[in-house]
Amino acid sequence: MALRLLRGTRALVVQALRACGPAQVAACSIANAGDIPSDEGQATGLEREIMIAARDDSDPYNILATKAALGTKEVPSITDKRIVGCVCEEDNSAVIWFWLHKGQTQHCPNCGTHYKLVPHQFSH
């Protein structure tokens, strides 16, 4: 009985491979001996689209972290130092606080955005 079941399964596999054609046998095979399929090979639907987009360095669904803006943000102050709060991501609720001193360009320790203290003059 078991032998008949194995012969039937073998016949189905051979039939499926013949339908694929000789050029596509490797892609159509159920499992290659000893090979483990990759994540991309097993992914389907939206997950597969996201993996292909990540491989091509595109972000169609805005799932990757936003990149910091280029340049230095100038922070006005009437004193020689000021405390600055950086919200690193748009939807983040945590604020990273650090001191900014006159004459030095400093960066956020979390996201790397650069800040510079510039003197502010009152207009009276």
UniProtKB/TrEMBL annotation:
Binding-site residues for Zn(2+), renumbered to this chain: C86, C88, C108, C111
InterPro entries: Cyt_c_oxidase_su5b, Cyt_c_oxidase_su5b_sf
Modification N6-acetyllysine occurs at: K67, K81, K116
GO biological process: mitochondrial electron transport, cytochrome c to oxygen
GO CC, one annotated term: mitochondrial inner membrane
Entries under Gene3D superfamilies matching the protein: Cytochrome c oxidase, subunit Vb (2.60.11.10)
SUPFAM superfamilies referenced in this protein's UniProt entry, alphabetically: Rubredoxin-like
UniProtKB keywords: Acetylation, Membrane, Metal-binding, Mitochondrion, Mitochondrion inner membrane, Transit peptide, Zinc
Keyword rRNA-binding tagged: no
Gene Ontology MF terms: metal ion binding
Family matches, as PROSITE patterns: COX5B_1, COX5B_2
Location relative to the cell: Mitochondrion inner membrane
Protein name per UniProt: Cytochrome c oxidase subunit 5B, mitochondrial
Organism: Vombatus ursinus
